[in-house]
Design a protein that fits this description.
Layout: H1 14-32, E1 51-53, H2 54-67, H3 70-85, H4 88-99, E2 113-115, H5 131-147, H6 155-168, H7 186-201, H8 207-227, E3 229-230, E4 233-234, H9 247-251, H10 262-275, E5 276-277, E6 280-281, H11 296-308, H12 312-323, H13 346-353, H14 361-373
Antiparallel strand pairs: 1-2, 3-4, 5-6
Helix pairs in contact: 1-14, 2-3, 2-5, 2-14, 3-5, 3-6, 4-6, 5-7, 6-7, 6-8, 7-8, 11-12, 11-14, 12-14
This protein binds beta-D-glucopyranose.
Beta-D-glucopyranose binds next to helix 2.
Length: 392
């Protein structure tokens, strides 16, 4: 990659600089989107190059949709639909085995990420994560509602995801961070609830499946509230006493827990108190990945939750922190090492995978999403994509 130009003028108003970063981020994501619709997680990072995740991609598409990049988001959802359609027989087997009381093992579940052209790829990964299959359904329904689009285009994918989630959501699986597969994770449940509720209201499901989707969402929500709450706040996994910054997303943008409810407010406070240091948000306290740094995309998730609770000024501070991680090249990283939870563990990851993933498209998209939410970026003011050479 060569150097893009996103010079920040020293006299520029901070919000104007953030608006420009957000607009450039939309252009960057458009430029890096694969012709088939997939969003690369990070174009050059050793362990991610060549793959697109449902989780990252769903949030990226949501950011693009909110910014008015309608076609880009739609094409990602087309890609999701194709990934599901190509695996409809696998889904049918998973659903049938579950119904027969003989569930298939984790290795037979759908993958977490796919190559751009739709293969599982040859590299081992921490597969079996259900969250992305809920998140993309939530995102595509939100996209259609936001822009008045016909959901028929994505109906098959929504149906297949609904069947898949109904058969698998109770199972322990890897979390957002591809760790701790022995647990049922509260943010994963939040994605499942958001996806099933969106599917149920999408009007593309036949009434019996829509009713089952609603029933599944209600059961998942009940479990989340019964076993996924500690001391009045959302917990990292069922039975845990800890928090994880991914819980902010359950409040916003997913909207599964009302930001202004006692549970929403206590969860925002708990994540903030445990994991935010000067606006930079850690994933969770025991994180050792690259030494456990601060993730701009999580500052934005927490910012969205604060915004939903009416705390606009604080949300803006979090956005400023996230935007401040931009490199001289105009790229947002996955994490920064300014405050490390486990500094002694950083080098082993540098040796294993190289420099932290930069640019990470999910980081760019979350800055876009929060900038739109706070009115820093006007969706209609998004600039047309620039010459690719000016960006990468
Ligand atoms: C993160 C995942 C993410 C993936 C691709 C991993 O390091 O833990 O949440 O989906 O990178 O960005």
């Amino acid at each position: 990659m060569t150097t893009p130009a996103t010079p920040v003028h020293p006299d520029e108003h901070p919000e104007a600089a953030i608006a420009r970063l957000a607009a450039d981020s939309v252009a960057l994501i458009e430029r890096l989107q694969h012709a088939g619709g997939a969003y690369p997680a990070s174009p050059t990072f050793s362990a991610y190059a060549g793959y697109s995740w449902f989780r990252d991609g769903a949030f990226i598409a949501d950011g693009m949709s909110a910014a008015g990049a309608i076609d880009s988001a739609s094409r990602f959802f087309d890609w999701c639909g194709r990934m599901l359609l190509q695996r409809r027989d696998t889904i049918a087997e998973i659903v049938a085995a579950e119904a027969a009381g003989t569930p298939l093992p984790d290795e037979r579940m759908l993958a977490t990420r796919f190559t751009f052209d739709g293969a599982e790829g040859d590299d081992d990964w921490w597969d079996f994560q259900t969250d992305g299959y809920g998140t993309w359904v939530w995102a595509v329904v939100a996209h259609a509602e936001r822009h008045g689009l016909d959901l028929d285009r994505w109906a098959t994918g929504i149906r297949l995801s609904t069947e898949y989630l109904l058969a698998t959501w109770r199972r322990p699986c890897y979390d957002w961070w591809e760790e701790h597969s022995q647990h049922v994770h509260v943010s994963t449940l939040g994605c499942v609830v958001a996806g099933l509720e969106a599917a149920a209201r999408s009007r593309v499901l036949e009434p019996p499946l829509a009713a089952r989707a609603l029933g599944g969402a209600a059961a998942a929500r009940t479990l989340l509230l019964a076993e996924g709450v500690h001391d009045g706040h959302l917990a990292k996994w069922l039975g845990s006493t800890e928090v994880d910054a991914s819980l902010a997303a359950v409040i916003a943008p997913l909207g599964v827990v009302d930001a202004r409810s006692p549970l929403g407010l206590a969860s925002i406070r708990a994540v903030e108190a445990a994991l935010s240091v000067g606006g930079g948000v850690h994933r969770y306290l025991a994180d050792t990945f690259y030494g456990g740094g601060q993730w701009p995309l999580l500052s934005c998730m927490l910012g969205l939750a604060h915004a939903a609770a009416g705390h606009r000024a604080h949300a803006l501070e979090l956005l400023r922190w996230a935007a401040g991680t931009v490199t001289a090249e105009g790229w947002l990283p996955e994490q920064v090492p300014d405050h490390l939870l486990a500094p002694e563990r950083r080098q082993e990851w540098l040796d294993r995978w190289g420099t932290v993933a930069t640019p990470l498209l999910w980081s760019h998209a979350m800055v876009v999403r929060l900038a739109v939410e706070l009115g820093v970026l006007e969706p209609l003011s998004v600039l047309p994509a620039r010459d690719p050479k000016a960006i990468l």
